[in-house]
Inverse folding.
């Protein structure tokens, strides 16, 4: 039996740089990875040094003819430009090269569309895709018809994206309403969490840094983690037990990437903002990646763009099992603390838990008290300002163990302290 696999479209990657050829090379390598993730193949690269991409054709006319020749020689199915193209650039390139013209944004949107699982994720991706398309419909229709239904044509859940201008705008309106609804729900859950005073640490970082692997190692969450870009789209939260009844919430989020399309940032704002309402940022870095420094810069830039700043940051230099010994003592100057870990081998995770315990308890005092029933109303305050780790109703009162702000602790001075030994006794 002969198995026929669907043919992969082959693309020439096109990049422009102004001064720093190294950063462009890094960006093109990443673009090749993105194209591969989206199910295409890289057939070659063409680069040009320019102060700004050419406003009409992205690259200059000389390069354009070089690109035309290379398209002919390689028989590639299209080109992918490393920056987001304007509608005019896309139309002009398509007309002059007679081939499918895609850009970095389309590829990232396509990957997101394939990954979207939850209804919120699907709405967000489709909205971002349609916003991108709304101003490029004519050019895209011609360009994509050359690829026969591959990259760039798929919406979430393999659904074909709308191409009729009037319907696109209608659908955008509909999706915005749906998204508002989902957002309201998310707000509610968040408020609930704040009311319960759960300490939240948000795991953020560049795509493929190991965020989901870390959440899995710490909590056994069973989140999909894979050696591919954007494995995670939907935020997942899990409780992490830190001993003595103290638990905090860890939230895994979508990864960042250089030149993350603004349509995605807008559409994913509420998902990405999970980090905004956290008490602490855990910044996971792939320490074994040669480009880790620029990846870290991208993460901080994206956090700023999302209005997330001024929170304590712990940078986790992950994948220490792959790092050479002389590279181990790196410190992130933007973070409050830097810690080397390996989410795979478990190295450094106990130290991380100790740091998390200290952070979660900062400014809080551990109390173990027997509250008489006549003063039971104070439990409401304890619950709202602190975290109760144990609550037991006995004949002589309510026995509680809790972490509470010092100001509240002094208000409990009149009630008897109960040591852990007494608690044990009480149990007997
Ligand atoms: N060797 C090694 N590999 C790791 C480590 N942590 C994660 N990985 C691998 O790195 C790859 C990416 O891991 P994920 O946890 O999916 O990364 P992520 O940051 O969640 O990625 P996205 O969801 O795509 O943003 C997987 O193949 C993991 O097995 C580590 O400590 N050591
Ligand atoms: Mg992930």
């Amino acid at each position: 039996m002969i198995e026929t696999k669907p043919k992969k479209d082959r693309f020439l990657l096109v990049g422009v740089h102004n001064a720093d050829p190294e950063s462009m090379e890094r960006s093109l390598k990443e673009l090749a990875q993105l194209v591969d993730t989206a199910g295409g193949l890289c057939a070659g690269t063409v680069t040009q040094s320019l102060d700004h991409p050419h406003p009409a054709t992205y690259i200059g006319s000389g390069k354009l003819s070089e690109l035309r020749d290379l398209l002919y020689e390689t028989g590639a199915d299209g080109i992918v430009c490393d920056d987001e193209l304007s509608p005019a650039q896309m139309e002009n390139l398509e007309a002059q090269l007679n081939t499918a013209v895609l850009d970095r944004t389309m590829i990232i949107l396509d990957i997101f569309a394939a990954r979207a699982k939850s209804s919120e994720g699907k709405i967000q991706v489709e909205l971002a895709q349609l916003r991108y398309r709304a101003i490029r419909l004519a050019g895209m229709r011609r360009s994509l018809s050359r690829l026969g239904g591959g990259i760039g044509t798929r919406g979430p859940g393999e659904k074909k994206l709308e191409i009729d201008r009037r319907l696109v705008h209608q659908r955008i309106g509909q999706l915005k309403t749906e998204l508002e609804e989902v957002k309201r729900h998310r707000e509610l859950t968040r408020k609930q969490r704040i009311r319960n005073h759960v300490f939240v640490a948000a795991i953020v970082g560049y795509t493929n840094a190991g965020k989901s692997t870390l959440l899995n190692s710490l909590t056994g969450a069973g989140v999909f983690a894979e050696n591919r870009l954007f494995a995670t789209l939907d935020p997942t939260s899990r409780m992490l037990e830190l001993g003595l009844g103290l638990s905090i919430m860890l939230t895994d989020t979508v990864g960042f990437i250089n030149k993350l399309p603004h349509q995605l940032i807008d559409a994913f704002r509420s998902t990405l903002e999970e980090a905004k309402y956290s008490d602490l940022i855990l910044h996971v870095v792939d320490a074994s990646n040669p480009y880790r420094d620029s990846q870290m810069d991208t993460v901080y830039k994206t956090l700023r763009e999302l209005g997330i700043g001024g929170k304590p940051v712990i940078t986790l230099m992950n994948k220490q099992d792959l790092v050479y010994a002389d590279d181990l003592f790196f410190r992130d100057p933007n973070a409050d603390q830097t810690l080397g870990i390996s989410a795979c081998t478990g190295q450094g995770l106990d130290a991380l838990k100790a740091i998390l315990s200290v952070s979660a308890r900062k400014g809080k005092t551990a109390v173990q008290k027997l509250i008489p029933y006549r003063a039971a109303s104070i439990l409401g305050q304890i619950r709202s300002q602190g975290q109760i780790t144990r609550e037991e109703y006995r004949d002589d009162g309510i026995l509680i163990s809790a972490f509470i702000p010092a100001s509240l602790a002094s208000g409990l001075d009149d009630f008897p302290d109960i040591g852990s030994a007494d608690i044990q006794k009480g149990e007997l």
